[in-house]
Amino acid sequence: MLKLQDLTKAYRTDEVETVALNNVNIEIEHGEFVAIMGPSGCGKSTLLNIIGMLDTPTSGHYFFQDEDVAGYSEAQLGVIRKQHIGFIFQSFNLIDELSVAENIELALLYHDIPASERKERVAAVMDKVGIAHRAKHMPSQLSGGQQQRVAVARAVVGNQSMILADEPTGNLDTAHGQEVMEMLQQLNEEGTTIVMVTHSPSHADYARRTINLLDGHVVTESMRA
Amino acid sequence: MKLANYMISASRNLYKHKLFSAINILGLAIGFATCILIMLFIKDELSFDSWIPDSENIYRVELTSFPPGTRTFELAATMGPFKPFIEQDFSEVELASRLRYEKRNVRLGDDYIAEQIAFVDSNFFQIFDLPLAQGIVDQSFDDPAEVILSEKMAIKYFGEINVVGDSLTLSNGRDYRVSAVLKDLPHTTHFDLNLVIPLSYSEFPKDEESGDQSILDDWFNIGTYIYVKVDRSANPVNLVSQFPAFLDRRAPRPNDRVIPSERWQLNLMPLEDIHLKGAPEARIKPKGSMTTIMSFALIALMILIIACFNFMNLSTARASLRAKEVALRKVLGAARKDIIVQFLTEAALMAFTAFLIALVIVEVSLPYYSILINKILGIGVLHSPVMMGLLVILTFFVALGAGAHPAFIMSSFHPSRILTTGKSESVGSIKFRTALVIIQFTICISLIVTTLVVYTQLEYSLDRDAGYNKENLIVLDSINDPLVIGQSQVLKNRLLALPNVSQATLTSSVPADRLVPILGFGNVGGQSVDPILLRVQSIDHDYLSTYGINMVAGRNLSRNRGDDVAVYYDEDMKDSNILINQSAVSKLGFKSPQDAIGKRIIDEVAFTIVGVIPDIHLQTTREEINPTFYYIDQKFYNKLTLKISSGNMERTIADIKEIWIDLFPQVSFNPQFLDEKIAAQYKSDQDQGQLFLLFAGLAVIISSLGLYGLASFTADRRIKEIGIRKVMGATVFDVVKLLVWQFSKPVMIANLIAWPLSFYIMSRWLENFSYRIDKLTIIGFCFAAGGVALLIAWVTVAGNSIRVAKSNPIKALRYE
Ligand SMILES: Nc1ncnc2c1ncn2[C@@H]1O[C@H](COP(=O)(O)OP(=O)(O)OP(=O)(O)O)[C@@H](O)[C@H]1O
Ligand SMILES: [Mg+2]
Q1: Which of A96, A97, A106 sits opposite B728 (nearest CB)?
Q2: Is the pTM for the entire model greater than 0.80?
Q3: What is the best residue among A7, A17, A42 to mutate for testing ligand 1's pocket, by most ligand atoms within 8 Å of CB?
Q4: Three-state secondary structure call for residue B174
Q5: What's the CA dihedral at B368, B373, B375, B380 to 10 degrees?
Q6: Which residues sit opposite B118 in a β-bridge?
Q7: What is the residue with the minimal CA distance to atom 14 of ligand 1?
Q8: Tens place of pLDDT for every residue, chain A, 225 residues?
């Protein structure tokens, strides 16, 4: 599905250069469930942002479905991104002024899909994550776990083939965290590629493969039996 | 001590948010400055004549006349012969004095200059205790060879003001000794006194030849102003109630059928009210307009409201950005009261800074503003403690009014929620803010529509087809001067001999002349009728060719026919032939122009209609075309109109002047282009248009300042939302569209409010004009103004929106 080759990312701010990713080589197959772990500041989010095409690498190659997107412009990346990739964030990142249904619909809004079809798909995905009875509520009226379920719904409503999740359970208690992980697992079983950053070893256990990062390097890769 | 702390933290805060503070202060300063300028205008309009000592006991006697068959005339002037009777019959009247203006030519070196001379009774300066620069006014200002000058005139004729005892010579050959020099009257005086000469029979003698009485004894000459000073304890209402009986006792009957009190009504107009409420006709200076004052006051208020709304809007909007600061202060022990005081202090600091900047703006712009409103306004009024005090209080209230809303909103934040969730609570006030923007733009759009309508009507008035060719016409006046009238034909013939003068006509009046005589006819086509009133114009046989007017029916008056020339108001009156215009055809009850030809209308002599000409516009677009009657009467020529064919205009005028001076060295030469004379009638409309343009511009500037501030704030606040949308696939264009739409919506709602409002107001305004642009064009202007407002809103918010839309979404989402 995607392949990172000698990928480096450096941030430059007033003379100081931070190398967030250093010569990273990773390959992820279609349908995989990958967890990325490592101490704070090691470059996990940076890696995920580059995979998600929200950011561009300083050097190296990024082959997405055999297409090298490393040198693409923001607008070109945007087209690929909205086609293939869904996002889940630690802090949910729902829009406070929009209802649950409207937040989910947002992922279809920029896709040239007729309104009636959008409504159907939003309704279907809300059923799937069990949030249908809250469709008209505002995010501030929901618990954290419910908000993250909305975020998951938003990430998959566009039939994205890959979901990137940055610490999706970081703001949730154990029970709610569990729920979200089960949802991700089910999506993976239905064929969605999932790349997830997490600090929790037990949540990493849901993944078939774990990549450990340290100071911008890949240190170990382990496969679950 | 605490206050000092507030001041320091307030000024630091203002400095920290420079853009916000600058927009806020600048908008408020412009608002204040506009308000002050308008207040100066209003104060000036309201202060007419109040500077005259004892003004509250001085009145002008005004006359309302009800001539049959036409409208009522409210005249500032009245009949001169009343004067002695008013003094005799009313014990409350201490003094009564006449004032009559007449144009005379005054010698300056070898030239003669036409001046408006004020002729007054000897007691005039006892009623009006006017300040003198030189000399004294003795009790009896009654020496016919005496003159009082204004300082301006003293400088003009003598080059200095120390001129008591010197003499002025008029074109009648007499010398007048200067007995005093008046201080120039402030422009807030309803009359002009440049050259004052005692009113006497020697100036207005009876006509020895015809035996006609002096104009001073003529009851039917309504051209004299009478002022009275009444006893302090007198009740003017009581006086006025005795006037009908007084009229019947003293005035002659207008005719056999009516008594004086049926035809006329006398009123007392308090001196201080003359400018704004006095009779509209036969005035010395144009009437001030209460409507203008009210609409300016309204505009001042609206502009102040716009500026205050900016203030509230920006402050409230910024509140959510400062939520954390407020929460922290509360956690550290600040009471709600402290937070309120802190924000009010900030508001006050901004308001007073704005006020100081406004004073500077006023000082700098006053000279230009004075030109615009045609008044010399002094900044002096502003320096008076009362005015200053009022303005400071106003500023204080603005600070309180505009600062209170944000202060209370912010002080009500719950620190726990803000600190844990980092979310502001001012979301609910987005509606409030949008409402303020809607009101601002409603005002802007209405002012733009007003400006467009005023200007288009003005354009229409200046450009309309008047029914005659007004190009290249020069008018000479003073034809009725005793030195000129006998030689008017000689003058006309000599001017026609000039190569560039192609046509010339002598007439009693020309287009744009105000006062034109009216005659009533009681017998039309042999039948007795209620008198039908027609405007009277004396012309000669070259009138139609000079003005380029074609006949509708019948024939022009001819120089070869004796019965085409009238003799009227004279011993040997006789019947004659006349022309009438088309409105006179219907007014007189004829079926068609053809039908009128050959019919006779009778006043004291019979006039036979031999020709009909089209209606031509002689007055402003405000007035209807009057039914008019044209005849040839050489005694009533006042003007000579010349048609200039081509060539060098300056050269031609110099040639004309040479001939004039050769014939009439003692009469001033005042050529005027007819099209300029016509345009001059619309001077006040032009000034008003410019003012509306200025106000509309200011309102738009202040509103867009506010919108700009609000947009940059909102964009910052929505940065997270925009980040999410971009992650979901929104392009830069999608985001810009979203933000711009957010600000277009209130402007569109403002349009929906402003359109019907402006349409109603401006179509009412257009009804003042008999000839006007189609009211439906206002709808077009509404769309135009709406479009302009939208465009302004877009330009204002687009820059910010693009900046925000382009920013990388991960930045916005990281620091959540
Ligand atoms: N926009 C930026 N400018 C400069 N430095 C940055 C920027 N974004 C990230 N960094 C730096 O790059 C490094 C990697 O950051 P990153 O956010 O990827 O870490 P992380 O592994 O996700 O940490 P955490 O577990 O705390 O989320 C850090 O040292 C961080 O300070
Ligand atoms: Mg991270």
Answers
A1: A106
A2: no
A3: A42
A4: coil
A5: -60
A6: B101, B196
A7: A43
A8: 899 999 999 988 777 888 999 999 999 999 999 999 999 989 999 999 999 988 889 999 999 998 999 888 888 888 888 889 999 988 888 888 789 999 999 888 888 889 899 999 999 999 988 888 999 998 888 888 899 889 989 988 988 899 999 988 888 888 888 988 998 999 999 999 999 999 999 999 999 999 999 998 888 888 775
